[in-house]
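note to self: dont lose this again. the chain is below, predicted strucutre after it. 90 aa total, dont forget to put it in the shared folder this time
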Amino acid sequence: MTLEDQGPVAIAGFLRDTAAWRGPRRYRLVPTRANGQPAFGSYLQDEHEPVFRGHGMIVLTLEGAQIAAITRFIGNGMMEWFGIPQTLDL
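---
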């Protein structure tokens, strides 16, 4: 599944929704690049094991020094394409 948020209001909503959805679980980002753009592997803390599990990719579209859009790819199947692990230790 792919989601895209464009503009400051939509991006702020994305960040609020992500924080509300994950609840008390922590979230980690691992930097990488996708098509020359800044990107991050996203990881969510497992509720039952001491690891963070891959949860997808976040790709930023920049206009100058500002984020113009965030594209979110849900699922961990593409993480190996970017050379990042499926899990991270706590």
